[in-house]
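Hi support team,

I'm opening this ticket because the web form for multi-chain structure prediction keeps timing out on my end. I have pasted the exact lines I submitted so you can reproduce it. The total is 440 residues across two entries, so I didn't expect it to be a heavy job. Is there a limit I'm missing, or should I split the entries? Thanks in advance, R.K.
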Amino acid sequence: MKKGYPFYLFIGILIVFQLFLLGLKYPAPLYSPGDVAGKHSELRCRDCHAPFRKIPSESCSKAGCHPAGKTGKKPAVRQLHTALKGLDCLACHTDHLGPEGRITRPFDHKSVPGVEICIDCHRAPGDGIHIRGASDCRACHEIKAWKPSTYNHDDYLYLDKNHNVICSKCHDRNVYTKYNCMNCHEHASRGIIREHEKERIREFGDCLRCHSVYFNGRRYGTEKVREGMVDDDDDDHDGEHGDHDGDDD
Amino acid sequence: MRIVIGRLSALFLTLFLVAANAVLIETVLDMYGIRGHRLFTGFLGTLLIILSFGYSLRKRKKLITSGRIKGWLFAHEWLSIAGSFIIFIHTGTHLNAAVPVITLVFMFTAFVSGLTGRYVYERARSSLKMQREKLRRSGLPESDIEQRLWALAITSDALSKWRAVHRPIVSILAVMVVYHAVSALYYGGFR
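Hello R.K., no limit was hit. The queue was backed up. Here is the completed structure from your submission:
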């Protein structure tokens, strides 16, 4: 007897019905696209999944699994999750990649809307290189990675052959928010001291705070005071300061 | 017989090119962490295969009554090949859950049986017909003709059974696809 499409469709429905019944008891082998990681394997599918919806973030926090803001063992991770509280967990996390699967996706800042200030999530740098309180990280860093930074010392002072020295030569105790030209440029210190004391200036190692110098094709420092440093007309491109030996005593 | 072997080679080559290339593409996408294509490729591949059923409707004059049968058959073949290719991309090497794997097995069988019809059976049948005509024209008695062409006749007869596999498999596949899609959307949502 020749059997038509309706017969085979019925066979298909029969197969599906059996699979459906089996799936009620053992859903994971039937529907799971891959084993879940770690302790997730102790859960049932419906503990996380919601019908015909992407997994809601509430599934992660309910039953005390990942209470909002208290996620992660490392303090930095906890801090990050506190900052991202209320956002979609699946923006960064996934599963079903095997028991040892990496369930955190490579972080994409674009997936976290409304986050603009780096130190809301990242720990503020505590080293001497970074200016304390500075919030514009993007002035030197790319979003993709902290390193390499786009920091360029030339923006502050061109390091020519005479200035190509170890950092502490200019930055005492490796505090990079300050510098001291006098560690090398003693000049005629007594004369300089006298000149500055006349103006009641006690600290004057950071010459560029008040003076400017023309260097490597650009001007560095401020022009509060023109005397004592090289003049534009001198155009000392080698980086040598102007002659102020007249201050010699 | 040489024709049948040649056609079989073409069948396996098509099968290999379609499946292997699709799996390769999916592996590369997976390597770069691109996974957003799965819903789209599943939908698109299924759509193309559904469209290929236009041929069956035209053949039975249900809903579609216009157009040359040959044209519809051509569309049936190529839409199925393209649809299967996209479904292979959709599947890739992810063979974990039973429901999608069973669905894939049915699709693969339907694909192979379809290719058998396209590449081997049609050619074997026309070749048998041509050779029989040729021998008849040469004045050979019917019994001698049958004796000479027995191997090709048996092969052609065996291959004619491909439809007996293709039809039921496609019917079950249709139900399995619906079940797979509903269960996948139930757990994963429309993302």
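A quick check on our side: Helices of chain B lie at 2-31, 37-52, 54-59, 69-91, 98-137, 142-148, 150-159, 162-188. Let us know if the file doesn't open in your viewer.
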